[in-house]
Each structure stands twice: as C-alpha cells, then as structure tokens.
From TrEMBL, chain A:
Keyword DNA-binding: yes
Protein name: RNA polymerase sigma-70 factor (Sigma-E family)
SUPFAM superfamilies membership: Sigma2 domain of RNA polymerase sigma factors (SSF88946), Sigma3 and sigma4 domains of RNA polymerase sigma factors (SSF88659)
Annotated source species: Paractinoplanes brasiliensis
Coiled-coil residue windows: none
Automatic annotation (TrEMBL), chain B:
Protein name in the entry: Uncharacterized protein
Keywords, ordered alphabetically: Membrane, Transmembrane, Transmembrane helix
Keyword Membrane: yes
Keyword Membrane assigned: yes
Bilayer-crossing regions: 39-60
Lineage: Bacteria, Bacillati, Actinomycetota, Actinomycetes, Micromonosporales
C-alpha cells in the first residue's frame, strides 16, 4: 500500500533533499544525541508520509519541521523520560560534538524545558522568524517570543565565562 | 566571554545518516504505517458490519483464509481508466468509457461481445458515476484513497436488509466519483479493496453515467 507513484516520487525527492537538515534540527532539539535524533526523524517522516497527499509543496518544509518538533517533544515525554531531570552536573555529551563551546551549549540546551529549548533552537540556531517558529511549535507568536527570550536568558546565566589565567 | 547568540548561531552537531538506502527505508516505513492505518480502519468496518447485522439483517460472509493477493496489472487497459493493481491472475475483460470489470481467470467474459449481459457475480466492477450513494441503513467507514476521503459500505439486498457486497465510493483527482463494487464472493479484505481503488486512475476519455 503506497501513495500514487507521482506523490511517492515527490516524497522521496523531498526526503532526499531535506533529510540532513531535519536530522540536524532533531539533533538540536534532543541536545545533540544523534541516535535519538534519528529516531525522531524516522517518526516524523512516517507521519509526513501519511499526511503527504494533503501537504502542499510550498508548505512541505514547514510541515516536516512541525513533525520533527512534535516527535522530539513526544520523545521527551516518553515513558522513560517523564520525571524531571534535575542534575548537579551538566549531562553527558555525545563524543562527536565538535568543540567545547558547542558541547557546553548542547548540554545547557538539555537543561531547558522542551518547548523553551525548541523555541531557542528554532529562533537562534535555525534562524527562523517568529512566525515560522510559531507555526512549527503550533503556538502564538507571543508565546514564541516569551519562550525564546526566557530560554536565551537562562543560557546567558549558565554559559560559563572562559578561564582567566 | 563568547556571546551566547553567536554560539547558538554557529552550533554544529554530528551529521545524521543519509543516502538512497536511508531514504528508501523512510519510504518503506511510511508505506507500512499507511497499510497499518488502513488495515485498522478496515477492521473497524468489519466490527460495525457485524453489529449492524443484528439490526438490519446484513448477510456477513465468514472470513476467508484463502484471500486473494493483489499484483501489478500489465494487461490491456480499459477505455477511460488506467488500472495498476488487480488480484493475482485477474484481468480486465469488459470496458466502456464509463466502467470496467475485472474477473478471475476462467470466468469466460469476453470483451468483444458488448451486447451480451455480463454477470457481476464473482467480478469486481468499477464505474464512474455521480448519482449513486450508500443507503442510509449502511454503516460507513471513511477510508483514505490517495489522500482523498472514500466511503466504504454496503448496498441494500432487500428492504431493511443489507447485502454483503461492498461498495466503495471515492473521488478521483479531479473530483469525479468512482464506485467500486466488490461482491461477497471476491475474497479481498477492506484494506485490499482500498489498495485496488488506489490503483485506478480516471483518464480524460472516461464518461460519467448516472445510476
């Protein structure tokens, strides 16, 4: 059971072109964990496939991004992650994070609540407009502004100053 | 201290998996999910039909273990339609611009005999028509046919009594209504009926009839 051949070809072309970017967004939303990001993207693309006949080409990218945000949020809410994680130390980081600032920032992003983290990632890492981020998060633009501002403020408080020798 | 916004703007993460085989796996997962969803919908229809049997005396056939398989159709296409999926070994045997019939091997239907009546028993018929609809007594299951809403149900066999024949109505890409009629003796699941319908394309040569 599959889509019309033309639509399936369009879906395949879209995934071929956009998968890497979606994995990147997912990885940022799950604090750099590439395995978890892959799970998120697979879930998101399955949902996108089901919705594909109703998705207009001009909105496909926004729709896919929304699927990724939803899947990442669900991932966070999953049974094994329901309890709030309060840590004395920064969480462990994947070994492949490229430099210290990035490693630190990914760890700090993990301490933000999911919606706040998503607002920060979409606005300040992905560079989306407030309207685009609101569409991805399915919330008001005002909510995006407040969530991203709070998240940014929190990161500023936590991001360490360099050591002075 | 580095500016937090600068760090965010330049944040890098390890690249994920990529390549044609990864994309093919994504597509395969989507197909399986689509199949599961439609199969679940078809199961729901079976339950509703069973419940309706109590009220209006539906003739519900037993579940058949020897269900047909659907395969790609490579034979001659009917006028007005493109057919990409049929039960294995079946063929399109009769066609005019508003309808075609698909029958199993050995049924004896001949496309070159347009004047002769063709029994629809044991055959799937497909008609382009905008007037027919499911009777009010029929349970209706809404199904997804190529992203458009189809309605699967039963006609009346007699007053107050539903037939076990299934009717599927769905709009083609241009909004024209297509009817698929599947008699009880054709052992296709509801999900397979939807699969079959998804393989039907109405061409510009088709002519709509009333009915």
């Amino acid at each position: 059971m599959k889509l019309y051949p033309d639509r399936e070809r369009e879906f395949t072309d879209f995934v071929t072109a956009r998968r890497a970017a979606l994995v990147r967004t997912a990885a940022l939303l799950v604090s750099g964990d590439t395995a978890k990001a892959e799970d998120v993207v697979q879930t998101a693309l399955t949902n996108l496939y089901l919705a594909w006949p109703r998705v207009r080409p001009e909105t496909a990218e926004a729709y896919a991004r929304r699927c990724v945000v939803n899947a990442a949020t669900d991932e966070h809410r999953s049974l094994f992650r329901r309890r709030e994680q309060v840590r004395a130390e920064l969480p462990e980081l994947p070994a492949d994070a490229p430099d210290d600032d990035d490693r630190t920032m990914l760890a700090l992003l993990a301490t933000l609540p999911p919606r706040q983290r998503a607002a920060v990632v979409l606005r300040y890492v992905e560079g989306l407009s407030v309207a685009e981020a609101a569409d991805a998060l399915r919330c008001s633009e005002g909510n995006v502004k407040s969530q991203s501002a709070r998240g940014l403020q929190r990161l500023r408080e936590l991001f360490p100053a360099p050591l002075t020798l | 201290m580095p500016d937090v916004e600068d760090v965010l703007r330049n944040l890098t993460v390890a690249p994920g998996r990529d390549g044609p085989e990864v994309v093919a796996a994504d597509v395969a997962r989507g197909r399986r999910a689509l199949h599961r969803r439609r199969f679940a919908a078809a199961g729901g229809l079976a339950a509703v039909v069973a419940a309706a049997a109590v009220g209006v005396g539906v003739v519900a056939g037993p579940t058949s273990p020897d269900r047909l398989s659907l395969v790609s159709y490579t034979g001659q296409q009917p006028v007005g339609f493109q057919v990409s999926t049929v039960p294995e070994g079946w063929k399109v045997v009769s066609s005019d611009p508003s309808a075609f019939v698909v029958e199993p091997p050995g049924s004896g239907g001949e496309p070159g005999d347009p004047g002769a009546p063709l029994s629809l028993d044991g055959r799937i018929s497909v008609t382009l028509q905008g007037l027919s609809k499911l009777p009010a007594e029929s349970p209706v299951t809404k199904v997804d046919v190529n992203g458009r809403e189809g309605r699967l149900g039963h006609p009346l066999e007699a007053e107050g009594k539903l037939s076990a024949t299934r009717w599927l109505f769905f709009p083609d890409a241009s909004g024209r209504q297509v009817q698929v009629r599947v008699p009880e003796s054709v052992k296709l699941s509801d999900a397979q009926v939807v699969d079959f319908a998804e393989g039907i394309t109405v061409t510009r040569d088709a002519a709509e009839i009333g009915g």
